[in-house]
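Q: Structure tokens for this one, please.
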Amino acid sequence: MKSIFIIACTLILFAGGLKAASQAPCKEKKNNSWVTETGPRTNPYTIIRLYDEQHKQLLEIVMNGYRLKTNPAMIKRLSRLAKAANADDIAFIAGILRISECRVSAVKKAGAQQGYCKN
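A: Here is the predicted structure, written as tokens:
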């Protein structure tokens, strides 16, 4: 009898949570996208280009001497970086991608160079 009561209470709480979640205000999602270009092992480099909804380039992140692996975890990080595409700070970019700051060689915003990190 106790277990049926506990199950019934759990279902009621779960149903109430679903109703509250469906009534929560929707946040406007950014549909920014990203593309990576990776060089061969003999000449390792990675270029990440971030685009907005109208396919205009927002940022270009250059990593000389480093090949970024696009595994599922990195894909999530790149998508998170695309949502915050106006952040052109090298420390912020390295923090989201979970790489060393000195891996990022240059960040170019809308065609202009913004910063360098010397190796």
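A few notes: The chain is about 35% helix and 25% strand. Residues 33-109 form one domain.
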